[in-house]
Design a protein that fits this description.
Keywords: Cell membrane, Membrane, Transmembrane, Transmembrane helix, Transport. The protein is built from 16 helices and no strands. It has about 450 residues and is an all-alpha fold. The protein has 2 domains: about 190 residues, Growth Hormone, Chain: A, CATH 1.20.1250.20; about 190 residues, MFS general substrate transporter like domains (Growth Hormone, Chain: A, Up-down Bundle), CATH 1.20.1250.20.
Length: about 450
């Protein structure tokens, strides 16, 4: 049995039972839902604030750019922090820092340059939190429960992000921008409080590498990805699919208005279709992911995500495009759960934060490339052609991953955990870091 599907032969508990019985995972789940929901609230409020105070579309674009792209540039360092310090402490500090920064924004509502600086700092703290939270999951559940745990956390986070803008629309008339930002600040502080329910997750020392400086550790993390075929293929495949398909958000707007001759409501419907598919996908994976091989789920996710855009380019109506985009969301959920689970099983614990940090930072860069390149392609052609080219490129890279990944996984070896670590895991209770759920051992 391959490393990535270890323990898959045993029956895993349901997501509900896992969250009910494993306290640290439940705390992480609640913290992610609270902070992600608050974050989506504040982004809507800030976009409206910048649009109303500057009247410039460029200013709104800069706000989104510093929030999504700037943190990606230092992702090797953000991942190294997760491997260097206690994960529980890292996550709590990140939430507190974000809460304080949002509080400053809410109280001052500063001019645009200072606002962008504060948003960039908050985004960097969020970028540090992401690999830490992904790396923490293997320390909370047994290996055979990783698929279910990743699916459950993904479902909660995406629910919060999906319903956050709706909550913002309901709160803004009563609380205005400053009030909504204060709610977001409170959400980060509540998340930090919930995370205190987890236990310490100290870093795992790497006996084969000198700790050195943070920059040295960041270089070690990059080197590990580049020289490890299976990890490199997963990472590059994910980034390639995003680089081709990230343009869909822009292309769908033009497809609905110019090609399908529909109105603004149809634009919102198409943009929301992927989110609906994502939620359904995560919900299904919380129940059925353990029955699937993770490499097959990863390749299938790449294929469905890419083919969804290709078929959307052929859509003859808004209903057809909506259906295909919703199915595409299922593929994106599969990509996320499969990649996270495979990396958690294949990467040594001492390097896991750096691998996740580099992966999600690279995905951010790939998305930015897709926005720019896709925008140029839209200007040169039209929305259907752009979606078909984007989907076709993603399908091509999916085939490359499908051909090269199985052999790389067969040749991949991961050192077994030290005997004392395995013994501690077996002896740990369900609420301890690394402790198994009551239905099985790690």
């Amino acid at each position: 049995m391959s490393t990535v599907d270890a323990d898959a032969g045993e029956r895993a508990p349901s997501a509900y039972r896992l969250l009910r019985t494993v306290g640290p995972l439940r705390a992480l789940f609640v913290a992610r839902v609270v902070s992600y929901g608050g974050d989506s609230l504040s982004m809507v409020a800030l976009m409206l604030h910048v649009a109303n105070t500057t009247g410039q579309g460029l200013a709104v674009a800069l706000l989104l750019l510093v929030g999504d792209f700037v943190p990606s540039l230092i992702s090797p360092l953000t991942g190294a922090i997760s491997d260097r310090f206690d994960l529980r402490r890292v996550m709590i500090i990140c939430e507190l820092v974000q809460g304080v920064l949002v509080l400053l924004i809410a109280l001052a509502l500063p001019p645009l340059p200072l606002l962008l600086t504060l948003v960039a700092l908050r985004a960097i703290a969020s970028q540090v939190f992401q690999p830490a939270s992904r790396s923490a999951i293997p320390a909370m559940v047994s290996g055979r429960d990783l698929e279910t745990a990743n699916s459950a956390v993904g479902f909660g986070s995406n629910c919060a992000e999906a319903f956050g803008p709706l909550l913002a629309a309901a709160l803004l008339p009563f609380l205005e921008v400053r009030g909504v930002l204060l709610v977001d600040a409170a959400s980060f502080l509540l998340s930090a409080l919930v995370l205190t329910r987890t236990r310490a997750m100290p870093p795992t020392p790497d006996p084969d590498a000198d700790q050195g400086s943070l920059l040295t550790q960041a270089k070690v993390g990059l080197g590990y990805i580049l020289r490890t075929p299976a990890i490199r293929i997963i990472s590059l495949g994910f980034c390639a699919v995003v680089a081709f398909n990230g343009v869909d958000d822009v292309a769908l707007v033009l497809l609905a208005k110019e090609n399908l001759m529909s109105g603004d409501s149809s634009v919102g419907l198409l943009l929301g279709a992927v989110g609906i598919g994502l939620l359904v996908g995560y919900a299904l994976l919380t129940r059925y992911s353990t029955a699937l091989g993770m490499p097959a789920l990863l390749v299938g996710g790449f294929l469905v995500s890419s083919a969804g855009n290709f078929l959307t380019g052929l859509a003859w109506s808004v209903a057809a495009a909506f259906t295909v985009q919703a199915v595409r969301g299922l593929g994106i959920a599969g990509m996320d759960v499969a990649s996270s689970t495979m990396l958690q099983r294949m990467v040594p614990t001492s390097l896991l934060g750096r691998v996740f940090g580099n992966l999600y930072g690279s995905i951010g860069v790939a998305a930015a490339i897709s926005y720019v390149g896709g925008g140029l392609l839209l200007d040169a052609t039209d929305a259907p052609a752009t979606l078909m080219i984007a989907g076709g490129g993603g399908i091509l890279f999916t085939l490359l991953v499908a051909v090269t990944l199985p052999r790389a996984i067969r040749r991949h070896t991961m050192p077994p955990p030290p005997a004392e670590e395995a013994a501690d895991t077996l002896a740990a209770g369900p609420d301890s870091p690394g402790g198994a759920s009551p239905s099985g051992s790690a």
